[in-house]
Amino acid sequence: QEYTMNAVTLAPRQADISRGFAMFIDEVNAEFEGEFKINWRGGPEVMPPFGQAEAVRNGAMDITFTSPSYYSGLVPASSTMNLSFKDYDDIRGTGYYERMNELHAEQDLVFLGEVPATDLAFHVFLNTPIETLDDLDGLRIRVFPTLLPLVKALGGEPLVLPMGEIYTAMERGTIDGFMRGTVGWAEQFQGVVTHVVYPGVYRAGFPVLVNQNAWNELPEDLRSRITTFVRDDLAPRIDEIWAEDVAEGVGQMEKAGFEVIELSGEDAARLREVAIESAWTEIAKTTGDDVAAELRGMLVD
Amino acid sequence: MLEWYSVIALVVGPLLVLMILGLPVAFSFLAVNIVGSYILLGGMSGVRQVVMNTIDSVSSFTLVPVALFMIMGEGMFQSRIAIDLMDTLDKWFGRLRGRLAFMAVGGGVLFSSLTGNSMGAIALLGSSLVPEMEKRGYKKPMTLGPILGSAGLAIMIPPSSLAVVLGVVAELSIGRILIGIIVPGLLMAVLYTLYIYVRVTLEPDLAPSFDVEPVPMSEKLHATAVNILPLGLVVFSVVGVIFLGWATPSEAAATGAFATLALAAMKRRLTWNVFSKSILGSANISVMVLLIVSGAVTFTQLLAFTGATFGMVDAIISLDIGPGAIVLTMLGAVIFLGMFMGPLPIMLITLPIFIPVILEFGFDPIWFAAMYLVAIETGSTSPPLGGALFVMKAVAPKGTTMNEIYRAATPFIICDLAAILILFFVPQLVTFPVEYMFR
Amino acid sequence: MPSPYHRLQRLFSRLNLWLAILGACILFFAATIIFIEVVSRAFGAGSRLWVIEISEYSLLYITFLGAPYLLEKNMHVTLDLVYNSLSTGWKALAQLVNSIVGLAVCLVLAVVGIDVVLDQVETGVRATTVMAPPKYWITLVLPLGMFLMAVQFLFQAVAALRTEVS
Ligand code: NA
Ligand code: NA
Questions:
Q1: Taking the model in full, what pTM does it have?
Q2: Which residues of chain B does A5 touch, with a Cβ-Cβ cutoff of 8 Å?
Q3: Helices B365-380 and B343-361, interaxial angle, to 10°?
Q4: Which of these, A58, A228, B94, C119, has the minimum number of CB atoms within 10 Å of its CB?
């Protein structure tokens, strides 16, 4: 008997990050042909991205490939997946993913694994030059909630804006900058982004969540084979596909005229430190000190 | 496996039946959403999803300007600022037949440069202009039509939130798109004006002209100074604050609302009665529009889940009819989908497939994007379920039937189609300004 | 002396009106906070991160607080294409069918909505936003509005039935 599950993703099919989801789905479908099949129904056009984890929990959807920060209201520890500078292999050895299993199970969700994208760090993009980290002081930076503590800690003025307003807000100077990954969009912002700050912070990774009832319908042997394949074979290989996207992104930014601001070694180190410190302090408020300390020990050296 | 067209018929059919029976549009959407989600999304879990998606779709900041522009429109209507404006225009152009219809197009163009949101534009122009135009003897085709037509220009003339979204989804330069759509937007305005001119010449009783007594120049100037110049404050409070970087386009709707109330106060007309009527009236219309949006968004997601829309898009690009014809078919498909789906999901579904094909054919993607945006605009004013039509129904005077709205919209849809064809055969209208600006 | 049925109708009518007025107040409140945000930012004061979020929730509350009143006053947008040309008898029949479908829709969403709210209370799920309020506060207004609209559709069904019989 072949078990079929419906899946949605946080991004539309053709988005750059969806390459990782496509690889995951294709390889799983090939590996377990005749036994298990993921049917990719689409992205945000099918289900609102911030509601996908709850949809999976409720059983309206079987699987979601989502963002760690999109369901931290349901599983507060979820957004920790971003808050590290380690790659997938390093984290795999710490028992982090097994611990995430337990934390997700508390909310009746199955955490199947991660579509890792360690290379995709978050950078600050500006319409005004800075020289040192201190120059960020007082600048208005558009953020999403995970990045809020960092921008605050750096003295910036965080702002929340809908995605569709960023362009005009940058163009007119309503905001001075925003934080985002470097891949796949530079050309669209040609003319309104003038500078990009290096190095980036954190890492990207996309949790794969499965509905508990749907998962439990699979035979135990199949469940364990899928988990092993996904975590030990597939994910490490997915973590390696992003280098060329990053290189392409760098080329695009160059073409779009973004000037690179390379922070001094001292500033770069401070940026990393503030990034870790501010974000984990915030995490502890929602997960409790014990869980935060335990997870931090796995993700941060 | 059902073919894509059978699926679309199966989902859209029952929706239309409920609406035609007279069930309010919002509840028709909700009914189909409940049944559809029950079948497709795992029984009761699916119905729970309807609850959550409904909530998600209404609590969206992109809808805030619709409600706020309503305050502006109702405020201008209740405090009779709109009437003063028309009286003044009568003094200047009293003999020009159809002047208020031209004004609606002019207002549409002006307002388009203020906002990026068509629904907000209809809400504002519809509630402030339509009642007074009817009082002055204008018939529906010349009141509802010009506003439906020109409000759509909001997305064609920067700032335009949909153009930005188009750039993001299609991975094209937003700046180039914003430049590229200006001439097409103006072209549409010209076509609308030509149509109005021809129509009121052929059917004079649609837009009466009065034999007004000649008004002395001093009175004209005085009326202009008192009634039109202060409107500059309102215009500045929307467009100026965006330009100066004080507010985003959505936030500017709030400054516009307060400027309108301030203007009413300066004219000593902001009585408690005017104020409360403006706020209650705008709240009522916002409710009508938002409830429909909440149902329509979830409906669209359901349709996307079935894969029927993808099936249609795939079928189009595999047609064996030559590149040019495929481009036109793509645009036709966008208009077709726009008859019952919102713009954003249409973009998410079609653009990632269309744009690579356009590049493969060697066409200019910005040229395609401009025509695509006109097609999106056309779809949203197309019967039976184009979103703009419902907003108009909500703001139009009591007793306006959907049939009248459909009939008023049709000529302007034809103008839009003409605009698409003109752009198709004269790509330079899009490409020349872009090349000039980005040399 | 009005019948208990009429008194019940009047009671709900009052409630609908007051909730609609509350909705209008929320709309003005949302406009005000956005306006203040723009002005204070222009004068160099910082940005209040909750403004956008609160105005989003406001839209939701405006919608479901105001919808029952509009239903009572028959102000919701309809596609009156065929309906207007029906004879009185057919109109009443269509009215009956519509109000029963509407009743079913609103009742289902009210009941399932309460179920979702209870579940959200139990799991303690929060919105994934800056303010991160408990989600049931956001969801709560939907079953409330749906319940009141179910009551309205019930009244409409009774009215249609009476026309049909007479
Ligand atoms: Na515009
Ligand atoms: Na139009």
A1: 0.90
A2: none
A3: 150
A4: A228
